[in-house]
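quick one
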Amino acid sequence: MSGASTIALAAHRRPRRISILGATGSVGQSTIDLLSRHPGAFQVEALTAQRNVERLAADARRLGARFAAIGDEARHADLKAALAGSGIEAGAGRAALIEAARRPADLTMAAIVGYAGLEPTMAAIEAGRIVALANKETLVAAGPLVVERVKACGATLLPVDSEHNAIFQVFDFARAERVSRILLTASGGPFRDAPAEALARVTPDQAIAHPVWSMGAKISVDSATLMNKGLELIEAAWLFPVPEPRIEVLIHPQSIVHSLVEYVDGSVLAQLGAPDMRTPIAYALGWPDRIAGPAPRLDLAAIGRLTFQAPDETRFPALRLARQALRAGGAAPAVLNAANEVAVEAFLGGRIGFLDIAALVASVLDEGPAGPLTSLESLRSVDRRARARANELAQKR
Ligand code: NDP
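structure w/ NDP:
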């Protein structure tokens, strides 16, 4: 049976068998919320978390999962105790996360945060799954390897990021050459209109308090620096057959228009909705059908005004750095991603300032050509070196 027909079958099976990698996070919990609203439509195979045993075990029991995996091996005994008598298998460590990704499922939600999601997400891809991809760092760091594996293994990627999900909904893949531009929208984050001097004093608590979206800490900081949009630019370049110069970023503070696709005749198609991740997640869970979603309905008359502005790459250089890495190609986006993860962690830990995040990423990126990305082994060594260098620089600041 060909990969395509396997996927068609998997997409229509009821109940759909689903696994969630990163089940205890913001995207993972929104996914579970949707599953709970569709009793009988989904059957949960595996759930994973890194440390949060209590949430993982409670959800595994409630949803009747078959397997629960905790990344932190030191928490294995706690997980086994929390699942005692339930009949749910408990695993721990990287191997268990990968096993969760490999277990048979019609759809795998890849919602681990950061580069840590690479191996489990790749395992789901290599198993030929339909992968609902929230873990953008995997595509940023390993774009060419992911695309090659998706093709070779007959997997399908469904974008979960709200912008890419929006583009996916209005992109005419059969006539991709008729697309003239992609416009990625960005809320602009909590400091969109803050003067440059004020940015130097931003604290982690302020950076995490996103005005529109409720998300995990890392992506909230990325949104505040606009690195999130930079990562999304790279993500879009791998997901959609449109060259980088024709992918633009547009600040749209209300986050109602989730992105736009312009065609050669001048028509612009967009997907709109309330800023609620459960809408793009519902699209991925139901694809190619649609399932009911609980997000508030759009009341455009009440909203009144939708505004747009160009991004300011002087105050927010992260966007420019991401474009630079995408143009350089090879391992440069992996370097950008690794340096950014280290910098965000250092900022959240109070070790560097807000403006140091982009400055640190720029320093690591500028240190020389990152070279080609030929294999996962080469990616691992590039990632290790970039992290080591970023840590050194963070200590000096
Ligand atoms: P969270 O920080 O809320 O959740 C992260 C999840 O990954 C948790 O389940 C966490 O487990 C697990 N995890 C953390 N570290 C590791 C590790 N080293 N190994 C394995 N698992 C780990 O993240 P979000 O849900 O906000 O984001 C998840 C991904 O989705 C990110 O790539 C983000 O960019 C992307 N995304 C998120 C959106 C959002 O609205 N939140 C929107 C669009 C994309 P534990 O709880 O035990 O720590």
